[in-house]
Amino acid sequence: MRTKFVFASILIVISLGLAGYYFWTGWWYILGIVLIPITIGYVDFFQKKHTLMRNFPVFGRLRWVMEALRPKMYQYFIESDTDGMPINRIDRSTVYQRAKKETDTMPFGTQNDVYKEGYEWMMHSIKPKEFDSINQNPRILIGNKDCLQPYSASIMNISAMSFGALSTAAIEALNAGAKLGDFAHNTGEGGISSYHLKNGGDLIWQIGTGYFGARDMDGNFSIDTFRKNAHLPQVKMIEIKLSQGAKPGHGGILPAKKNTEEIAAIRHVKPFTTVYSPPYHSAFSTPKELIQFIQLLRKESGGKPIGFKLCIGKKSEFIAICKAMIELDTYPDFITVDGGEGGTGAAPQEFSNYVGAPFLDALAFVDNMLTGFNIRQHIKVIGSGKILTGFSIVRAMALGADAVNCARAMMLALGCIQALECNTNTCPTGVATQNPQLVAGLNVNHKKVRVANFHNETVKAYAELIGAAGMDHGDQITRNLIYRRVFLYESRTYEEIFPSLEPGSLLKGNIPEKYVVDVKNADANQW
Length: 527
Description:
By secondary structure, this protein is an alpha/beta fold. The protein contains 19 helices and 17 strands. Helix 5 packs across helix 17, helix 6 crosses helix 17 (444-468) and helix 15 (408-414) packs across helix 17.
């Protein structure tokens, strides 16, 4: 569109000038009128703030025109996002405002229906903590007894989004933002590219079922290829992806039109072919073998933190992993819990909408199992499921998360407008496309600041919230802090909805009825 605009504008000016000169003495009036939108277009073309206007000069302004014309209350409606699940437009606006460092205060009080089923709120204290006394850059140390290189991580980091799914400029801006804001960037399962490394931001290297960046040309896991990436200084942690919330049990898909020669070289696949990641791992086939695989990766990486990511499906299978940990006395350094409401650029609708446990249920379950088997102290839990605000962080921590990852919020900070073209290679903002003309509109130096701004402002909001509750650290958050309206005139705490377990209770035989069958069926030697 950018190139077409330049050629079209030059052609129009020359054509009108010649036609007017020969056929009409007042030709300069028409030329003057035409020059107005052309001048505006060139202003759009050269500005670096708005990708949409850079990629679509003049026409890109229609988005802001329509926003200005719509009723103000429209911004508070519930709409559907990229995977068909409801998302509050207030939260979406908050992301934009924080990324741009604009005011995120709200006029005229809450716009939520506080008596609607599902409304949630947190309790505050009559004696809140002074904000200056609260740690405004909270971090956690990830690494257990077998880890030689523990990592001090921010409580909020960038969730897994692969190069290939996202553009070169998007990956570079995310990593540069992570460097600027001192937080980590998960590579996604697509391997480590030069765009991940260029700016020196901390990386969480994700290894999926396709073993991209750690495979041979036949698709098998290769320990030699693994070592090369694992020892990169930017790689701070390594995450094995068992499943993701957007399409659990399905594997990944990279459309042929996005699989460029550069991406193919990074992934060790043939270019311009559709690449399917298998739905399961070939490097291990039982819970014990998974734990042994974690041992192997930790050893071959030089002792870096190793963890895994999953969306909870059959509960007995996760319990089986817990039993394997205990039998081998080996534990992952972290577990990333994804929710069934997680998003992706391309997945079958049935998998996106109906497969996998929702985030809150899954997070509470994982925390309960680790606590019940008395192994929680070895493992940090990271929550990943529609984290957009400081309250999202508090809510996740109430159910057991030590930290959180967010993906869609980071995309919004980059300028994503949810055009729903992630899987067509025509993303108008240059975020989820490999089209070089669209990617060119995304200015890395400008967007990296927005990414860092969003992270810093959201973590700051989290700190203000726990201070309002009279706390000064996330460890003090319990399930009793959050209330949820379950009926019109009844609300319950998270503790009542998701009852927690006492440490070691499952080992002592104190098994809640809802877990009895799953605990019984869990076998460390088979899924």
